[in-house]
Design a protein that fits this description.
By secondary structure, the chain is mostly helical. The chain is built from six helices and no strands. It is 71% helix and 0% strand. This is Putative terminase small subunit.
Length: 116
C-alpha cells in the first residue's frame, strides 16, 4: 500500500474514532467500535498534535452528552432524580453548592518541648 493510502486510511480512522468517542466515552470502547487497537490511539495522541487537540474536544462532547442525560433524569416528570439534581448544581455552581467542612478545633492546646 502506498504511503498516501496509509495516510488516508489513518486519517479516516482518526475521524471515525473522534466521532465515536463521545458516545463510547472510553478509549477502549471507541477503539473497539472503530476497529483499531489502543496502541494506535496512544500513538496518534503522542505524535499528532491536531489529533490531540481534536480529542480534547471529543472528551468535552462526551461530558456534555452525559450532562444532557443527567439533566433529563433530574427533571423528568415521573420520578425526577434529586441526587442527579444535586450533582448538577454542584457542578454548575460549586462555590454555592460545594460540601462545607468545619475544621475548627476547640479546647486547650498544650505544647511540650522535649530537648535531647
Amino acid at each position: 500500500m502506498s504511503t498516501h493510502g496509509t495516510t488516508h486510511k489513518s486519517s479516516q480512522l482518526k475521524k471515525a474514532f473522534l466521532s465515536t468517542y463521545p458516545d463510547a466515552f472510553t478509549v477502549t470502547e471507541a477503539c473497539k467500535r472503530v476497529g483499531i487497537d489502543r496502541r494506535s490511539f496512544y500513538s496518534w495522541l503522542e505524535n499528532d498534535a491536531a489529533f490531540k487537540t481534536d480529542f480534547e474536544y471529543a472528551k468535552q462532547a462526551a461530558v456534555e452528552l452525559l450532562e444532557r442525560a443527567c439533566r433529563t433524569r433530574a427533571t423528568r416528570a415521573k420520578s425526577p432524580s434529586d441526587l442527579m439534581a444535586i450533582f448538577l448544581l454542584k457542578g454548575a455552581a460549586p462555590d454555592k453548592y460545594r460540601e462545607r467542612i468545619d475544621s475548627r478545633v476547640s479546647g486547650d492546646v498544650r505544647i511540650r518541648v522535649v530537648e535531647e
